[in-house]
Specification:
By secondary structure, the protein is of the alpha/beta class. It folds into two domains: 229 residues, Malonyl-Coenzyme A Acyl Carrier Protein, domain 2, CATH 3.40.366.10; 69 residues, Malonyl-CoA ACP transacylase, ACP-binding (Alpha-Beta Plaits). It has 14 helices and ten strands. β9, α13 and β10 form a beta-alpha-beta unit. The longest helix is centred in the first third of the chain and has 23 residues. The radius of gyration is 19 Å and the shape is globular.
Amino acid sequence: MKAAMLFPGQGSQFVGMGKDLAENFSIAAELYEEADEALGFSISRLCFEGDAAELTETRNAQPAILLHSIIAARILLEEAGIEPAIAAGHSLGEYSALVASNVLDGIDALKIVRRRGELMFDAGLSQPGTMAAIIGMADEDVARACEEASSGDQIVVVANINSPGQIVISGNIGAVEKAMEIADSNGAKKVVKLNVSGAFHSPLVASAEKELVSYIGSFSLSDASTGVICNADAKMITSRSDIIDALSRQLTNPVLWSDSMRLLAARWDGPIIEAGPGRVLAGLMKRIDRSRTVESAGTVEDIQKLLERKI
């Protein structure tokens, strides 16, 4: 059985995530044990009962979300024979999509995203920045606000095009705050600064991207067994070389999620599943294409419903 699979990004973590999966599926318990050993600390404890602030740290949240996501996809495969027809992930979630598409080994992916989180955090210390969500404003108007707010070495750019009317901007703190003021005075319904440690998906994290690409090169990557829609271009790719190229640009380029989901809808008319914690991507799809429904597979209850319905 085939389904398009979507994988969430940072921000979907919560204390207690994955505990019900580990208690009800042996494969989940085994993968949490393997992850604890591979990472050198108990990520299972952090997910199941850890401190919320500690779990939210970029270096912890990223492997925690990826692990939860690949476990959910593995359960769907083993319990119901559901495998991806197309895979896509939002920012961090792109690595989960690569595991589901047999590009990366799951443990290797955990090590990579752990390092990714560390590098992103370090980049935020060396080049302080922030991000903000602009709600209810046209894409071109947000881009224009960013251009107007940028000057000299102070920049702000569009970072995530999540859905119509939901854009995230990223850059130097002063420039982001100025763009927020411009957006607010030009009709944005809501402007919210995000609680992040850096200006992700902007030129300010170029140092992290360069080091990350070098680190990824120490692992074995294969061609994808199914199409993966990459964030940087909103294009379907399968070859190892295209995937490495896409990852080399992912951290500093905007996440083209709206275009990615439109491509998915054009290429696939079957079921769509969000594998991992939360329902963020299901919510975005409602704003992108109301004719498509995204089923959630992040908890035992979610998965049991899918298995009973035989999607």
